[in-house]
Structure formats: structure tokens, C-alpha cells
Amino acid sequence: MKTLKELAELVGGTVVGDGEAEIHSVAGIDSAKAGEITFLANPKYLPLLKTTQASAVMVKPGVEAPGVSLLVCPNPYLAFAKVLTALHVTKPEVRGVMEGAFVDPEAQIADGVTVYPGCVIGKNVTVGTGTTLYPGVILYDDVTIGEDCLIHAGTVVREGCRIGNRVIVQPKAVIGSDGFGFAPDGSGYYKIPQVGIVVIEDDVEIGANTCLDRAALGETRIGRGSKIDNLVQIAHNVKIGEDSIIVSQVGIAGSSEIGKHCTLGGQVGVAGHLKIGDNTMIGAQSGIASNLPGGQVFSGSPAIPHRDWLRASMSFSKLPEMRKEIGRLKRQIEELQELIKEG
Amino acid sequence: MKTLKELAELVGGTVVGDGEAEIHSVAGIDSAKAGEITFLANPKYLPLLKTTQASAVMVKPGVEAPGVSLLVCPNPYLAFAKVLTALHVTKPEVRGVMEGAFVDPEAQIADGVTVYPGCVIGKNVTVGTGTTLYPGVILYDDVTIGEDCLIHAGTVVREGCRIGNRVIVQPKAVIGSDGFGFAPDGSGYYKIPQVGIVVIEDDVEIGANTCLDRAALGETRIGRGSKIDNLVQIAHNVKIGEDSIIVSQVGIAGSSEIGKHCTLGGQVGVAGHLKIGDNTMIGAQSGIASNLPGGQVFSGSPAIPHRDWLRASMSFSKLPEMRKEIGRLKRQIEELQELIKEG
Amino acid sequence: MKTLKELAELVGGTVVGDGEAEIHSVAGIDSAKAGEITFLANPKYLPLLKTTQASAVMVKPGVEAPGVSLLVCPNPYLAFAKVLTALHVTKPEVRGVMEGAFVDPEAQIADGVTVYPGCVIGKNVTVGTGTTLYPGVILYDDVTIGEDCLIHAGTVVREGCRIGNRVIVQPKAVIGSDGFGFAPDGSGYYKIPQVGIVVIEDDVEIGANTCLDRAALGETRIGRGSKIDNLVQIAHNVKIGEDSIIVSQVGIAGSSEIGKHCTLGGQVGVAGHLKIGDNTMIGAQSGIASNLPGGQVFSGSPAIPHRDWLRASMSFSKLPEMRKEIGRLKRQIEELQELIKEG
Asked: Among candidates A104, A123, A118, A114, which has minimal Cα distance to A147?
């Protein structure tokens, strides 16, 4: 529970209306009730300001709404995230190593860590203070996990991988599985041992059931602040820069490097050994088969500049008609040629 | 073991031949032996009726097969499913909370529930009678699971999510992972806490390694009777109507609503904040980027009506030839223009 | 630690330089130091031979490098894999059934097996000697696992499935989940029980979070030596031949048969009930909707011969221009027709 004034201080905004109003939670603009705060980021919902039951609304400067308390701030969407955090997020209770967890005597578990039942922790593992390992987390030997991480249930981290501070891993991610490397030996395939590791830098989030393969040699690396959604495949020796966004079901093949501040839409595929420059945006379902310069938007499979793809896609359904038209033109030209020859 | 007559009653069919024949199992038409029943749904397999060793065959009305006992019924495929259930499916043995399961004292586990070793069950969890939690199922605090559910090994259900009755969850599904929401804060991204839940209605099936993200606010909801295959991504605040079919590796982005009785083929992607009408069918690998009316079939990425896509796809490989032809026509027209000018 | 001479014997190569040089590990050509061996498979890295700090380099016959010891062999990439194995891979320590593992008294666990904490093993399960079950592996009743397998953490194998010898399963694979089969019953869907199994032959590797569905009746089968990457969906009754490569995020629908020595690129989709001939290669993100003969390369969705697809894809972005050009030609022809009529 916080007053509207306290929330305004938190998000760097100003109150128009009742600063003493007590706010206990956040809700959508159409379902919010008294005691709740909501937000308005999209002008198309402006009419809802008249009917909302919320005690306060976070809005951009310039919005007026007689009879409703406003929290005016430059970025209501970011303010929404901060208020939600303040009102709804509590640090998990520290419970230590609980009964039913199996921790190797040579592991180093800091004070202030919670290890739930069903966790199995190998030799020489280090877990930093403030970190919670939810039930069924499995850390192979020599894994390092930093401070204040949330590692959700059933996540597996294989031998030697390193996770930084404030990293959040959703349930059942796999970190450090073998890269997919096989050398043809004439008849079949000979496994190339994958002896590298995965390094996850600070403030990264990894989605549920996402797979990060360990490097063949060296490192697979996820840069500070990057966010990876569910069911993503990151192959061996991939590097992802800082603050990049990788949406669900993306696959990035071996040794490719994604720059900083990139966004890869859902189900994108990136072939191996490529470089994607900083600030690149790639539309959903695209297929990337060559290096991309930074700062541009691409779509399609194989990908082309987004605008070209939009225009070409709109023409795609016209293909049969175009073929017919070409046939008609051909016949008309033949008739003209005939006429002229005769003439 | 049942007699053919008993099976006929079960499926609402009639016996042509030996109603007292004892049937112990179901098999394919080419591998079935004496004591087994098989089915014929596709007329192209009619010739196999002469050579099958099965004791009986489920067929549509109108099929004749001297020397083979028939179970005649309007829908042999459905009958096959019912007979398979009758002969092969037994309710799992009730074993209570087994040694090696960790159940919070504040959880409410009904009589008639089985909780296998390796399960971890949090505070205020409710599990209804007849439900089986296979090994390694992890239920966070405040989860509700209805009656007669089968929750297969390694499934994780995060805090507060609700599962109805007769729900089947294949191994290692993740229910209630955080939605993928981040607000840009100038330099990087600020996590938007995901404080909603997932609600799974009665008679739903969820595939292996499928992810259902919890809502940011409110609910992600899977409608009664819908079936979701393996490795599917359902993002935060998605709603799926009743009796819809979502095939493997589909991804549905945030807040999109899929109607009733829809079918989404494998690897389909649906962008966020869209509405897909009831009875829509979407071909495999399609990409949906706009609202779709109900009752139609779409394919392609971006998707267009299925027939248009089929025709356009057939023309796609002709593109290089079409370009050449256009070049030829252009030159011929120039020649004609020249001729006429001269003439 | 091995001498260069010993490594040469191992890979069937010859030493040019110091055969007594002691090699303790393998590294990339640009990061290798004294005591390390590296390899050169791609001629474009030849200049690095002059600057590498490695004690030795594996090269093809014909490469010369004064001042560097060479291990000359016909296939340096395969030699790299073998040397990596010799220097870096040790058999896992045998630890027996460890505390915290739950093994049914009717399971048969051979000597020389390791079962880590958190594993749960059902009735009548058989595990062959030399096999390691990492933490949290769950084997339902009647599962058979051969000798010298590595089953990584959190993998689930459902009832009755059979795994051969020397099989490697990356973390959290699901083997034997129900196939996705439902019969419409007028209003909704009736579940078709999936009473078959999965059979994995010898020397197969299965990726992390990959799903192999059990057959409806009979078997889903993965042929000897085949390698399946992460997040792959193999539906019920699929057969994969020997020595095939299935890259990440591929989905193969029910009852399709993939031949021997095939390669399916990342994110490929294969529709149900198809046959793909031996030695077929399918480009990433392709969609296969019809049978394919063996020995060819296909790409696109729907797939066409790879060369045709490459050429057509290059024309795709020209579509809007082509439409305009067709319009221009049409007008020019009309003008010509007019001129001739007048003339």
C-alpha cells in the first residue's frame, strides 16, 4: 500500500488530484477499482478515462481528466512497470538449504540463499547471496551463480557454466547442453566433444524451456541486460550483445554474433557464422542467411529490407494474375507483329 | 478383454459376423492378429480387408467383407478411439503421497490423489481427487488443480495458476512462467512484473515442453476442451476459445485471442493483440499479422486465403522465368514502336 | 597429456616437426598457446599459421608451415574431434544408486551404473552397465536403457520406451509423450489413447528439450547413429533412418518417414504421412508437404529444388517492380493497337 504521492516520487512524476489517495495494486483501465492505479499509454483508450473506477491513472503530460486523480509522467509504461514492482513484487523469503535438496559438501552456498527441495547441486558450485533456487534446479559441477538471481524450477545448468548477478531464469531452461557438432567419418558421424561453457552476464532474463548450448571451445555468451524469451535455441559459440531482445522460438545457429540493442522477432532463424550489427530489428519468422549491417529493419526468408518485404508480400498473391497478364500481353504482341508484317 | 458385441454397444454400432468373438487389443490393419480389432477409415485400404488377420474390423456402413467380422458404425475413427480406451486405458493406481514427495503442510491434497517421488508442492495448493502427479511435478504456492487430472513428470505450475478437471499435461510443460514484458528505460529494459495467472479450463490437454505464460495483469486462459501440442508458446494474456487445436511449435504472441473450434497448423506464428474468429483454420508455418474473420482457411506468411496461397505458391518458382519474359516483351514492344515510327 | 606422436597414431596422421611435443589440450587457432594443438580445416585461415602460438596444428596434406609442428591427416576436422575426445573426455565416475534417488525394487539396475539424486525409476525398468542417469531423470515403468548411455538431467522417458546403447540424451528431453491424436466427436474431441512406444537405436543423440512422441499403435523409431538437435518435435509413428541429422526446432508430423543420411535444416516442418528418400537435404525453415525422392536438395515452403528456390527468392523483392512493368507494357500495347487501328 502506497499513497499516490509516494508513487509519484518513485516514478519521477507529479500528482494532479488527491496525492493522499491510497493505492494497493495495479489493474487494467477497464477493470481497475477504487484503491487501484492504472495507466494510459495509448491515446485510443482516452475515452476510458471518463468511466474508469481507478483511484488514479498514470498519463503523459497534456492529458486532462476532470474527476480522476492523475500521475503525470513522461513514460507511463515505464512508470506502470515501476509501480507494479513497488506494489506487487516482494523478495522471496530466505529459507536456506531446505530438506530434500542435495548439495555436494564441496559446493559454496552463500548466506541468504534459498535452495528448495528437489535441487541437486554438484561439486565446487558457487551460489551468491540473495539467490533463490526453486524446486528441482540442477547445477552440475563447477557452476557459478551470482547474487540476487531467481532460478526457477527445473532449470538445468551443466558443468562449468557461469551466471552473473540479478539474472532471472524461467522454469526448465537448459544452460550448457552440448552444442550440435559432429564430424562425418565416412559412414556416420563422430561426436565433437563440446568442452566450452556458457556465460550469462548480469541482468539477463532467460525464458522457459529455452536452450543455451555450451561452446565447442571457449564460450557461448549472453550480454548484459539481454532478454531471451521461451523456447529459444542458442547454439554453441553464439555471442549476443548487451540489451538485445530475442523473442520466443528464435533459433540462432552456431558461432553467429548478434549485436547490442537488437530485436529478433518470434520464430526468426539465423544461420551460422554470421554477424548482425547493433540496433538491428528482424521481423517475426524471418530467415537470416547473410551478415547484416546495424541500424536497419529486415524481414522475410531470406530476409530483405523490411519495406521491400512489405511491398513484395503484398504482390505475392497477385502472382497467378501476373502470369496470366504476361501471357495475354505476349499474345497481343504476336498479333501486332502479325498485323504489321501483313500491313 | 471384451466381446465384439460389447464393443458394438460401447460405440453404438452393429455387428456383422461373430458377436461373441473375444477382442483383447487394437492394432493396425496390416499387423492385427487373431484376438485383435482394427479399423478402416480410408477407402484406399479396402483391399487390406481381404488379407487382414484381425478378428474384427470397424467400418462405415456399406462396406462388405465376406469372412471377416465387422463392427459397422458411422464414425470408425471415433469408434477406434473408444475401443482403444476401453481395452488399453486403465486408471492409474492410487498411491497417495509417496515417499520422496515434498508437500507443504498447508497444501490440501484430496483423497484418491497420487503424488510420486520428486514432486514438490507449495503452500495453499489444492489438488482434487483422482488426480495423479507423476514424478518431479512442481507446484508453486496457491496453485489449484482439479479432479481426475494427469500431470506428467517434470511439469512446473507457477504460483496461483488454476487447472480444471480432467486436464492432461504431458511431461515438462511450463504453466505460469513470466510473460515477456520489458519497458525501455532509456539505456536498457526494465522488467514489467507479471502478476497475473494462467487458467486452464476442463478437458484441456497440454503438450510436452509447451509454455503458457502468466498474464501481466489478469489471466491467460485456455478454453474448455482445447488441445495444445508439444513445444507451443502461449504468451501472456492470450485467450484460446473452446475446442481449438494448436499443433506443435505454434507461437501466439501477447494478448491475442483465438476463437472456438479453430485449428492452427504446426509452426504457425500469431502476432500480438489480434483476434482470430471462431472456426478458423490456419495452414502450417503461416504467419498471422492481422485480425481474421471466422470460418475461413488461411495460409502463408503473411497469411492470405488458403486457395490464393496455393495458387501463388505454385507460381513462385516461375518468378525468374516471368522476369525474363517481361524483359522479352519489353524489347518486342520497343521493336514494334520503332517499326511503326519508321512506317 | 599426450605427445604429438601419440596423437598422430590416434588419428592416422603423420608428424612434421617435433613428435615428442607434449599436448595437453585443444584450442582455436587464434587463442591456442604452448602445449595446445589446434586445427586448420578452412584455407582462408592459412595466414594464421604464421602467428599461432600452438605447439602443433592439424592440417591437410600439402600445407607447409616452417617453424610450426604439423599433424598431417586427410580429415583435420575429424582428427580435431578425435584429439578433443582423447584429451578432454573422461568417462563419468561410477557412483551407483546415490542417496536421493528413488528406484522401484522391481527395477534392474546393472553394476557400473550411476543414478544421481532426484532420479525416479519405475517398475521393471532395465538400465545397462556403464550408463549414467544425471540428476532428476525420470523413467516410467517398463523402460529399457542400454549400456554406456549418458542421460542428462531432467530427461523423462515414459512407459515402455526403449533406448539402445551409447545413446546420449541432452537435458530435459521428453521421450514417449502422448502423440497428438483426437477424434472429432461432433461437439469437441475424443482423445485417442497412444499405446505405442518410442524406440531409439544405438549411437543416437537427442537434444535438450526435444520431444519424441510415443506411437498411437506400434513404434516411433529413431535409426542408429542419427543425431537430433534441441527443441525438435518428432510426432507419433515417425520413423527416422540411420545417420540422419535433424537440426534444432524441426517439426516432423505424424507417421512421416525420413530416410537414411538425410539432413533437415533448422526450423524445417514436415507434414504428416510423407516419405523423404535417403540422402535428402532440406534447407532451413523449409516446409515439406509432399513425398521427396532421395539424393536431392530442397528449400522453401512449400519446398522446391534448392536451385529453383534460390533463383526465385532473388526475384521475390522485384515483384512490385514487375507488376509496374507489366502495367506499363499493357499501356504501350494499347497505344500500339490504337496507332495501328488508326493507321
From this structure: A114
